[in-house]
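Lab notebook, bench 4. Still working through the backlog of constructs that have no structural model yet. Next entry is a single chain of 355 residues. Request: give me the structure tokens for it.
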Amino acid sequence: MNDFRQDPEGQASHAEEKVSSRYICTANHGFASYAQEELRRLFGAVKSMLLLPGEIFIATLQAEPEEVSRILLANLPIFLRHIQPVQFQDEAGLPALGRLAVYLSRQSQLEGQTLSLQVRKSKDSFWQESPGELREWLQEELKSLDAEFSVQEPAWVISVYADSDALYAGVSRPEENLSDWSGGAVRFRKEEGQISRAKFKLIEAEKEFGIPFNSFRRGLDIGAAPGGWTSFLLERGIQVTAVDPAHMHESLKNYPGLKILRKNANELKFSENEFDVIVCDMSWSPKLMAKMVTGLLHSLVPGGTAIVTVKLMHKKPLAMIKEIIEMFEAERMQIQRAKQLFHNRDEITLYMIKY
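Model written out:
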């Protein structure tokens, strides 16, 4: 962007050109404004343009791409779910797709590599068919790269977004996108007999945070009913104490390794170092939840793990999250990640380790 200013003598002088980078950014629906705020705190002023209200926007950041990646990976955001570079932009229409194919085929770093081609489209996109069909079309057009297309451990990700009035694309390393999944939309297939979709939160946390659930032996599930998180822990071979005054799902009755206590957690006392993992997914006030869980942390072994969801019931969630984190840190909990997972709704997930 050229910026001309008048010098003191009235002559036009060319100011130093600012380096900027453009990205398509995605958050959970309704939380784009908080993702924008995270970017402002990291990069200063952010120029934004909405693609999908409350969820997807284009952000222009005053930093080089390498600097953007370095800063984001060093300060992993809570609400910014996925980010992809915009290095190619064209008007909407099939001719633009041909120009995109030419552009990508000239990217020498992609030759002979394992590539992930991630395609998204808006509801009123100029591309009328499915994203999968556009992906297949592009793969056919990129045969000259002699590349292998795979979602498993790609060297590069090609990201394409087909909107109603424009076509956007970019090439990046997988880690630079903050998620391996297209748009950060982590999708799992519901299992037969699955108690609730809440289980997907722990499955996603396991993958996203690299939590070694298979190494845990004894777990406490606070506010366990109907048992979605309890069932996950049991499947990982953990002996579970499930606490909730409400009834657990019928399928969990008489389940080996499960102890059900139909009481409120604040009525119970547990031994020191009784558990090596504590989880809590309660629809409750964040401060009351944190107070209850911290009151039970004496039962978590040093080095033990705690995973809790924090419900976002206030208009200033970033300030509230900071306060909840400070409550846990005061009880010798080290925050590993705070993130709004794809399967979170009006909440975030905290992953913590006791020291």
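Notes after review: Confidence is low (pLDDT under 50) at residues 1-16. Residues 98 and 286 are 51 Å apart (CA to CA). Flag for follow-up if needed.
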